[in-house]
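Need tokens for this chain, all 461 residues.
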Amino acid sequence: MTSHCKFWLPKKKRFCSNSTLRDSPFCGNHTPRSDAQWIPCPIDPSHSVLEENLESHLNRCPLVKQAQSLSREPFYQKGINSGREEEEEGNNAEAAIARTGSLFTSEMKRKAVYAMSVPKFLELIARIKSVHASICNNIPDSYEIPEACSIWTNKEVDKQIPYQEKHVLQQASILGNLVKFRVLKDSCLSDSATGEQCGSRREVDGDTGASAVVEFGAGRGYLTQMLADCYGIKKVLLVERKAYKFKADRSLRQKNSLVLERLKIDIEDLNLNAVESLKGVSYISIGKHICGPATDMTLRCCIPQHSNENSASRSKASCHLRGVAIATCCHHLCQWKNYINKKYIYDMGFTKEGFHAISWFTSWAVDADHGSDFPITDYSAQLEFDSMSEEKELSVNSELRRVEDIVRDMQPIDRAVLGFMCKDIIDAGRLMWLKAQGLKSELVKYVPITISPENRLLVAW
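Here are the structure tokens for all 461 residues:
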């Protein structure tokens, strides 16, 4: 009888099910090994390798093979959408390049905030409130569930497709906003009675519109799955750097009228104009919860002719952008180097260090309980720093009081509201950048906060 590994998996609350090695109660993955002999792989630290085998492993590490294969693709261009550390450095490119590998982590941001003087911290909070009140206090609600998505909202889809109502409502509202702003057209619906698809009908009408969809940060691809089920599209390109199980690809490939391509690549390195299948094609870019700096990279990727960096290496646009819909999220991961509108940050009176603090504050927005009674509609009424005048005076005058103490004493609702303000300020900069490129653009709340606290959607056309 085969014996099983005796290693306890706390998250799964069971023992490992792998077979044991000879003369060991554990499997190969969980057999205790000497730390002196094993070191993290310098290419991919997610796995370890024997130090004596390191040299040979570097030539056959799976990540190396993937990178070599990707580097031969015409659409791969390292860092083409990454931005640069300081746009105002001009000819001093070496200084910018020297810092391109730097990553300002959340822990580093937290320490930087706690290292501030109390007056500087309070001044930053006051400026955040002032900026938000002047440019971000009227983000409209735009919860749009189109009739075309009823097969999903009514749970009439294939039972084998994963279904979570909160994700379905978010996906439907993203598509609904594309219809609302006329990036997608209602006439582009599949006719379930006749089986006629959007593509054939629009060819008759002489209006092909957007014949392709590019989903950035696609994950398993179920936003595109809904789009394919509810609207006629000819071509789909899924961009995702990670590998996922239970993808929508299988059901998408079963649609005879649809051409599917998945690119396993970081958005930072994707030259969309060099993708052969998109040449001469009009397309819509979509993304649900594109984390942190990936939103900025996506905008650069879709609108490359307006980027200052790497412009010489970009070919003339061979595909036409019809519209963009990006649900932003994870603003705490945003990086100064990648952010697309540094000029806006400076114009609002913030510094690079202030941007790091703002991006760290955004994590507070998702810390609170966002139930139906979450009073988030009136930011200025909720963030009651002014009512704490005595405590503020103490903060300024007492050397014993630190920024860390002030943060710890803040009410959860105050922290959450400040977090939402900072998220809005970051997204407003992206909105202004889109408008500066000549695109009509909107920033909307595409679902209620009870469905998702990450409920901001950038739409441009």
